[in-house]
Amino acid sequence: MRILKVILMWSFLLFGLFYLIYPRITHHPLTPVFHYANLKDYPFLLIPFVYVASYLSRAWGVFIFAFLLGGVISSFFPKEKMKNALSGKKKTSYILAALFAPFLTVCSCAMIPVFGGILMAGAGIGPAVSFLLMAPASNILALIFTAQIISGKLALARFIGSFFGAIITGYILDKTPWGKKEAEKYEKLVAQRVEEGVERNFQEKSIEALQDALDLAKKALPYLLVGVALVSYVEAYLPREVVARYLTGFKGVVLGAVIGVPMYTPTLVEVFLVKALINLGMSPGASLAFLIGAPMASIPSMLGVSRIISPRCVITYAILAILTGIISGLIYMMAFRTF
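Below the sequence we write its predicted C-alpha cells.
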C-alpha cells in the first residue's frame, strides 16, 4: 500500500507536469476544453456551474501538478536551507523569491498550494507572499504574451512594477503584528516537522508529500471554487464596453487595478482581455494597473489563501497589491504621457 502511494504520487506529479507543458509545445490542450458562447444565455442559477466547468476543463491538470508540487516542496526541501534562503529576516530573501517566481507559469489560484508548501518548508511569511504575488503577475509566459500581443514596453513595465510591488508588499506584511503571528505559527510547525523527520527515507517523504498535497487541497480548493463561481456573474453581467469607456486618465488607472479583483481570468487570458479592452479605448496606464492588480489580488485566490494564512494578512497584501497596480499605472502614464 505504501509503495502504491509513492507510485501514485510521482505518476500524478509527472502527468500534471506533462499536462502543463504539452499545450506550450503543441499549441493545443491535452484534453478537451469546455467553451461557452455567452454566459448570459444560460439560466441565472446555472451560470456559476457553467463557468466552473469551463475553468476546471482548462485547469484540472494544472491543479494536480500544483498541489502535488506544494506537497513535494513541503516534504523534500531541506527545512534549514529553505529557512536560510527565504527567511523574512533577510532582505535578499525577498529578491530571491521575486526572481525565482516568474519561472512558474501558473495562475494566482494554482499558486496557492505552492505558497502553502513553501511556508511549510520553512520560508518566511514575507518572502512567501512575494513569491505568491510575483508568479501570476509576471511569469515568463505572461511577459512574452504581453510583449507579443500588446507591447514590449508594457511587458517590461509589468515586470518592473510586479517585481518591486511583490518585494515591498511581502516586506511590509512581514513587519505587521498579524504577519509576525503567522510567521511564528509556521516556524513552530517547521521546527516540529524537523524533529519528526530526521531519518525519513524517499518513500516516507513521498507519502508525506502526497498527504500534504491532499491537506492543501482540502483547505484551499473549496474556497477557490466558490470564488470562481462568484466571479461568473461579473463575467456574465459586467458590460466590457462600459468598463472600457471609463478606463482612461487617473480614474482609469484606479479602476483598472480595482476591477481586476472581481474580473478573475486564468493565466495568460488576462492579456487577451486587456488587448480587447485597449481596442475599446482602455489607456495603457489602466492596462498596466489591471495586468498587475488582477493576478495579484483575485477573489478566488484570496479566498483560497485565507485558509493558509489569516484573512487579515490576505486583506493587507490585497490592498498593497492594488496600490502596486495603481502606482505602476500612474508612473507609466506620466512617464510616457499616455492619458
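The chain is about 75% helix and 0% strand.
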